[in-house]
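FAQ: What does a ligand-bound record look like?

Like this one, built around flavin-adenine dinucleotide:
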Amino acid sequence: MRTQVGIIGAGPAGLLLSHLLHLRGISSVVLEKRSRAYVERRVRAGVLEQGTVDTLVEAGVGERMLREGLPHHGIELRYGGAGHRIAFEKLVPGRAITVYGQQEVVKDLIAARLAAGGDVRFEVEDVALHGLDPGAGTGPYLTFGGERLDCDVIAGCDGFHGVSRPAIPDGVLSVYERDYPFAWLGILAKVAPSSEELIYTRTERGFALHSMRSPTISRFYLQVPADTSIDDWPDERIWAELKARLESVPGFDLTTGEITEKGVTPMRAFVAEPMQYGRLYLAGDAAHIVPPTGAKGLNLAVADVRVLTEALAAYFADGSTALLDGYSDACLKRVWRAQHFSWWMTTLLHTFEEDDPYGRRLQLSYLDYVTSSEAAATTLAENYVGLPFDTEL
Ligand code: FAD
Ligand code: DHB
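The answer part, i.e. the structure of the complex:
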């Protein structure tokens, strides 16, 4: 079997890449370890940057997102007994975010690929990469479940725990990483949001985030210790803690209800450089992870895939490799901007055990600055809604 681009992973990165390549007349096969039902149900991110929304619309897969997604023109920072709005419409006119679940993006992309006759294979076992070494006698190829797929190029879109990055020989990659001493406990609840906009809350008990998915479904996150087991968090305890953290301004009442999903996500930052080796190109979480406070993970995956699509289109048009050779450099500037923003938002809003009273004062001072200075608020706003793709970072 042969295709132009062998794609490992049917997350947002792999599926969008396959779709964008199809629009350019380039063939691909997507190999996914999990079932279709599993990837369509996996609850993860929910905030789409302006550029992500524009990309999906331009690619013809934004119709349901435009209908069902919730455009937001601001967020609230809540701390010290008061809420402060960061107003996107004033600070970054014309740019906003859309709240739309990652699994809905995944569903839309799978539907589009299958409608176009795309080759997306689920429950594929034992994917392995071969012929990556630029000096190897063969071109690259993938093996899985007794089959062989020859390709011109392999795209490793298989997330942080995938097989693509580990297939690169030792000594090639430089890894930069940071583990945080806390995790996020996330829930989905069948309850109307208690606020029109997202609330990022800093309290002495830790961080909490009120997000949503629809007028009847809310999403919440709580900062918890890194080794937290979900079994220690019965529903009543989760609601009590959310109330204790979010009901920190007078008159705010959190509506509680049935919890339909819950999980604990570790917080880590990770970058592997370069994001390529031979004819293997890594995109999305396969190459980099950010702590979720800045809502950047999914959006970065989309940005990588845009760059890779342009580079592959040039390569398949006339054999030119300049854009492919520069793929990693072209992506990493945005990746590092997102790393910094995510670290900054995390540091601003979480409680750190090692924080002394001096550290806490610094945190509150910075929050006061961000919520009172238009220059500082604009820094937050322009990063949160996402810098334009053509920004010279
Ligand atoms: P993924 O979505 O991870 O997709 C990779 C795909 O590859 C998966 O479908 C996987 O099953 C498949 N795969 C893995 N190994 C193999 C293999 N060997 N063979 C074949 N297929 C394979 N970001 C936010 O902004 N906000 C959040 O709240 C948030 N929550 C998150 C919660 C969790 C538990 C995780 C893991 C991530 C979260 N993120 C969040 C990050 C965001 O969801 C990711 O950045 C985004 O999913 C990246 O997309 P991707 O396509 O690169 O990787
Ligand atoms: C959501 C996730 C995030 O990481 C974030 O910063 C904001 C919202 C969400 O899942 O809705």
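Follow-up question: can I read anything off the structure? Yes, for example: The first strand starts at residue 2 and ends at 8.
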